[in-house]
Design brief:
Blueprint (H helix, E strand, L loop, with lengths): L8 E3 L36 E3 L2 E7 L9 E9 L4 E8 L6 E3 L6 E6 L5 E5 L2 E7 L1 E10 L6 E13 L1 E13 L10 H11 L3 E2 L2 H7 E5 L7 E6 L3 E7 L5 E6 L5 E8 L13 E9 L4 E7 L6
């Protein structure tokens, strides 16, 4: 069971010769031995099928005007199937990304759209239904040369039974490709980016939410109130800790309850505030922010 995972992961692939990207050029698809005409879309990879799901890479096209390429890992799920967020909740497994084999990539950062709460036979899981696109920001080492983006993804798909999936995909990001803000891939990536929570500074957090300890609750409990029309709240904590979140009976208020915590080696450890990341999901704009929660048994 997984309880905590990092907010965003940056990868620095090994240094391969950038010329290996030519192996993925469309020209290789037109070998004389195969007279059929093959369509090559420079902004998508081919679909890779797996148990109850399929995966591909997509890109917005064009060079990196902001210093990075907009790309993404798109997963389509069979009807009734789900996959998981970086913190899967009470069950499940998070996606694990590897970009080993990428060329001319200085850094690759993965973002996670805000999840939905899913009931799995009485256990709450956090993840996605139907489909999900994880945005990637790919920083090239040399912006004048193509980037070979290679992804190896391990993820879980559940529909009555849970199955592990491993998939690999590759896509060339060419600075000379024409950019189009209205292409299907650019539109899909913009929609996925809009679902990624905005990271708040402590000052921004305090202007949007208020968190207070409930001194009457038998377990360590906090009340989070917000003026926005929030749909849900998710908590991520260090290993050994687990915080349940749910709506309270009051409008625009959520409860945060510490239901699991590691065994303290000393009385002092019990009084150390726990660093927790909260994701507040809203239809218009979701937010994530860090808080320190004092989970001592007596407030």
């Amino acid at each position: 069971m997984h309880r905590h995972h990092p907010l965003q992961i940056s990868f620095q692939p090994s240094n391969h010769d950038w010329r290996s990207v030519l192996l993925l050029a469309c020209a290789n698809l037109f070998l004389l031995l195969f007279p059929v005409i093959v369509h090559c879309d420079p902004y998508v990879s081919t679909w890779v099928s797996g148990p109850k799901s399929s995966l591909r890479l997509i890109a917005a096209g064009g060079g990196p005007p902001q210093g990075f390429y907009h790309a993404g890992v798109e997963i389509r799920l069979d009807p009734g199937a789900i996959t998981y967020w970086r913190m899967p909740g009470g069950a499940g497994a998070p996606p694990v990304f590897s970009f080993e084999g990428s060329a001319n990539a200085a850094d690759i950062a993965v973002s996670y759209p805000a999840p939905v709460r899913i009931d799995e036979d009485g256990t709450e899981a956090f993840g996605y239904r139907d489909s999900v696109t994880f945005p990637l920001h790919v920083i090239p080492k040399d912006a004048t040369l193509p980037v070979l983006l290679a992804v190896h993804l391990s993820y879980a798909v559940c529909a009555k039974i849970c199955l592990p999936v491993k998939a690999e995909a590759r896509l060339t990001l060419d600075p000379n490709q024409e950019a189009s803000a209205t292409s299907p891939e650019a539109t899909a990536l913009a929609a996925a980016e809009a679902e990624v929570p905005l990271r708040l500074t402590p000052r921004q957090r305090d202007a949007k939410v208020a968190i207070h300890r409930d001194k009457t609750a038998p377990s360590p409990t906090w009340q989070l109130s917000t003026q926005s029309e929030a749909q849900d709240l998710f908590a991520e904590a260090p290993p050994g800790w687990y915080f349940e979140t749910r709506k309270s009976s009051r409008p625009d208020e959520f409860l945060i309850v510490a239901v699991e915590q590691p065994q303290a080696n000393s009385q002092l450890e019990n009084k150390i505030p726990v660093p927790v990341t909260l994701t507040l999901k809203s239809e218009r704009q979701s937010y994530e922010f860090a808080v320190d929660l004092d989970a001592a048994s007596t407030p």
